[in-house]
Amino acid sequence: MRSIFLARHGETAWNALGRLQGHTDIPLNDTGREQARALAAGLGDAGVVAVWASDLARARDTGAIIAAVLGLAAPTIEPELRERRFGVFEGLTRGECEAQHPAAWRDWVAQVGTPPGAEPRPDAIARLGRALARIAAATAAGDGPVVVVSHGGVMRLWLMDLISTPVPLIANGAIYVVDHDAAGIRARAR
């Protein structure tokens, strides 16, 4: 079995304000750096052998902090671990999305539409799935688990698709355990 600790990056200033980040490259804030250190400390006895991260600064820096705390090599950067592109919603709070783009917001909330310029839900799910499959394939079955630092929106979509049940919003620094073996892929909150 190959295990992945799928983690959401630490907090940014935009997370604190409730702004949708998408592909906008916002760095960690002090709270986010502390969350990354706490995440690493919580994995200290898990036998983690490697760290992978999205190419966006908030995930890349979370991964670098985790790797440093655990005494591992710098993270392998994987662009397909990026957050979903939110199009016209990027940089806006949920209230601003609703006020400025009411029809697109209604469709988004009802999960029947994608805002202009945003990545379609099936594309985001497939992209993260491809990345996780490549990472699992690159990890020998006898090796310990790896940490993969990604983003809450795309993680949530992928998890809901995998387990066919709603997943609550994923907090900064939260971890899901994803196991790959001959029986398939399973995921659970850690």
Key words describing this protein structure:
single chain, 190 residues, alpha/beta, Rossmann fold, 6 strands, 41% helix
Written overview of the protein:
The protein has one domain: Phosphoglycerate mutase-like (Rossmann fold, 3-Layer(aba) Sandwich), CATH 3.40.50.1240. The longest helix has 18 residues. Strand 5 and strand 6 form a beta hairpin. The chain contains seven helices and six strands. Helix 4 crosses helix 5 and helix 6 packs across helix 7. With 190 residues, the chain is an alpha/beta fold. It has a six-stranded mixed beta sheet with strand order 3-2-4-1-5-6, sandwiched between helices.
Q: How would you concisely characterize the structure shown here?
A:
By secondary structure, the chain is of the alpha/beta class.
Dominant shape = globular
CATH top level class name: Alpha Beta
Radius of gyration over all CA atoms, rounded: 16 Å
* CATH architecture classification: 3-Layer(aba) Sandwich
* SSE-based structural type: alpha/beta
Distance between the termini: 17 Å
Major sheet strand order:
3-2-4-1-5-6
Low-confidence segments: none
Total count of domains? 1
Characterize the biggest β-sheet: 6 strands, mixed
Strand segment tally:
6
Number of helices: 7
Roughly what is the average pLDDT, rounded to an integer?
Answer: 95
Strand content: 15-25%
Helix content: 40-55%
Return the CATH topology.
Answer: Rossmann fold
List the helices and strands and how they pair.
Elements: E1 2-8, H1 13-17, H2 30-42, E2 50-53, H3 57-70, E3 76-77, H4 94-100, H5 102-109, H6 121-138, E4 146-150, H7 152-163, E5 175-181, E6 184-189
Parallel strand pairs: 1-4, 2-3, 2-4
Antiparallel strand pairs: 1-5, 5-6
Helix pairs in contact: 2-3, 4-5, 6-7
